[in-house]
Design a protein that fits this description.
Number of strands: 6
Mean pLDDT: 81
Structural class: alpha+beta
Number of helices: 8
Distance between the termini: 123 Å
CATH superfamily of the largest domain: OmpA-like domain
Low-confidence stretches: 58-66, 252-263
CATH architecture of the largest domain: 2-Layer Sandwich
Shape: elongated
Strand order of the largest sheet: 4-3-5-2-1-6
Number of domains: 2
Helix content: 40-55%
Radius of gyration: 34 Å
Strand content: 5-15%
Oligomer: single chain
Order of helices and strands: HHHHEEHEHEHEHE
CATH class of the largest domain: Alpha Beta
């Protein structure tokens, strides 16, 4: 029987595509892994954060001579927490600096009241507070700002226009009752006085949504109302430029901790 002739073999010029496809697949897998490593999973972050807190809160292992060993993952996430804390601390420092500059500028703008002992500028946990004696702004039993006081408040408004902090204006009275056709009680009087200051600020260009008028009547005295001096001290208007944190928190009684800004 005759042999079948051999088919001639041809070189396969497409074999390189197999190797190329394998290379592209490996390259794709490499970048997927790199992306997975660079993306912090929030759930895992909380788990690791809890583990780190637990580790630092427990007693050191006596067998290790009091030395605590952290895994690479714990060290990584601890570094993230440290960097976050450092950023928050730097942000707080810059905010405190801005508040100090604002307090100094307001102190200078309202120098007339300060020199007469009718106003104090202080920096509290809530922000910068201007405490103005009511006699410097209003006639007794009235809520219309005196003409000579409008200019000083307008100078303060020019300073407040330059920033975006929220402003709280609060009126206070002594405990002597008032009953007039216009003001049936100290609640109406204190609220009207705070509103008068707010209206003046708006007229001077302060954005209305930054402002809040509050009437507290005689409920937050700074001195006992058992003497003329104490009652005079309690009749006041406080203007507080709030920090972002204080603005977000519910209103509470004013803090006793404060720094008086020197004249």
């Amino acid at each position: 029987m005759a042999r079948r002739p051999k088919r001639p073999e041809h070189d396969n010029h497409e074999r390189w595509m197999v190797s190329y496809a394998d290379f592209i697949t490996l390259l794709f897998a490499f970048f997927v892994v790199m992306y997975g490593i660079s993306s912090v999973n929030e759930g895992k972050y909380k788990i690791y954060g809890s583990a780190i807190n637990k580790a630092f809160g427990t007693k050191a292992n006596e067998a290790n001579g009091g030395i605590m060993h952290l895994t690479e993952d714990e060290i990584f996430f601890k570094s993230l927490v440290d960097r976050r804390d450092a950023r928050l601390a730097e942000k707080q420092r810059k905010q405190n600096e801005r508040m100090q500059i604002l307090a100094k500028t307001l102190n200078e703008a309202m120098a007339k009241f300060v020199k007469n002992g009718q106003m104090n500028v202080s920096q509290t946990g809530r922000g910068v507070e201007l405490e103005i004696n009511a006699s410097a702004l209003f006639n007794q039993g009235e809520a219309d700002i005196q003409p000579e006081a409008k200019k000083t408040l307008a100078d303060a408004a020019k300073v407040l226009v330059e920033n975006e902090y929220a402003i709280e204006v609060e009126g206070h009275t002594d405990n002597l009752p008032i009953s007039t056709a216009k003001f049936p009680s100290n609640w109406e009087l204190s609220s009207a006085r705070a509103s008068s200051v707010v209206r003046l600020f708006i007229e001077q260009g302060v954005v209305a949504k930054r402002l809040k008028a509050v009437g507290s009547a005689d409920n937050l005295p700074v001195l006992p109302n058992d003497s003329p001096e104490g009652r005079a001290r309690n009749r006041r208007v406080t203007i507080t430029v709030l920090t972002p944190q204080a603005e977000a928190e519910p209103a509470v009684a004013p803090s006793t901790e404060q720094t008086i800004i020197p004249e």
